[in-house]
Amino acid sequence: MRFDNICMIDVSNKSREDFKKGEKMKMRSLVTGLIVIVLSVTLVGKAIAAGSFSTYNMTIPKLGGSNTTSNVTKVSSSDKAVVCSDQIGGGYTLNARIELLNGSVAAGYQSISNDQRREYTLNPSTAGSSYHARIATTIFIPVDVQATGWWSPDNPGSCGF
Asked: What is the pTM of this model?
């Protein structure tokens, strides 16, 4: 009988050790989970705060004509807006600027060609305002020009080219 009691004590001691190990593992899992949640919320918050790109695919009228992108609301206090030109038909150079919805100029024209990124300085206190990019031909371009790319009033990052 003494042998049985010793075995029982050994088993119960192992159970306590296993229980303690299990509790430590649960605590580690809980801490790891909390860290993942905090990092996820932080990264998502930064992504939202940085805004995102809006794509454009439009025809720009010849001889100084222009067209506007879709309207985007500025969500960050970044002072930079970005226009990323992907393809411009005929290899022409166009002009791009940033405007408020009422058409007033927020940042003046800059020339832009294929695979180019242009940054524009905006008032950082205008988060919540809506903008669009205006893209124009020069008076010397005799044909309508197709232009594709993406833009943002919040400078969310690299253009990818």
From this structure: 0.69
